[in-house]
Write a structure and sequence with these properties.
Elements: E1 2-8, E2 13-20, E3 25-29, H1 36-45, E4 48-53, H2 59-62, H3 65-71, E5 76-80, H4 84-88, H5 90-93, H6 95-99, E6 109-111, E7 116-119, E8 122-128, E9 137-141, E10 144-148, E11 151-152, E12 155-156, H7 166-177, E13 185-188, E14 194-195, H8 196-202
Parallel strand pairs: 3-4, 4-5, 5-6, 10-13
Antiparallel strand pairs: 1-2, 2-3, 7-8, 8-9, 9-10, 11-12, 13-14
Length: 206
Amino acid sequence: MQINCIPSGALGVNTYYVRDENTNKGFIVDPGGFSPNMENLIKKDRCDIEYIILTHGHGDHIGGVKDYLSLFPKAKLVACIHEKEFLANPRLNMSRDCCGMDIGLDADVWVNDNDTMNIGEMELKFLYTPGHTPGGMCILVENILFSGDTLFQQSIGRTDFQGGSFPQLKNAIHTKLFTLPDDTIVYPGHMGSTSIGFEKRNNPFV
């Protein structure tokens, strides 16, 4: 599995391009904006992008969705079913504040907690982790967790935006993420990578 992190969008969201090297099929996580560097890398790999997956619907994580769907017309947009209203409503997702324009999206595939999906030889498992937004989720692939804005290195996602809830976020982290093996590598939506074990021992917020 090849993982590439290229920050994108006005707030420099960690956008991930993930490729199964055996089948050359891949997916994109949280395209905050369009990145020519990512486009060039994907074209160089000749990767078949099958899905664009959103950990949540805030504007800084969705600004590049339409560009990538135009670039890869066969790709399908994936989000948590509980984020449906958030994604569709620019007022809720704050896209004008983040991207300078109103963005409303409707996913092609809506997933629930513990749903799985195969992309090439990779199996993805979706973990429902509300609190930062009503439909926030994380993506588990082998021992890799794409945590969006649920869990950061020694921090957590904000819960003071509309739809946020600190009790929900804390519960999701403890019941869904801190039950994963300690050596699970965490790739968050902002800042650097970490691990579940490190955050269990050192995260001051949960």
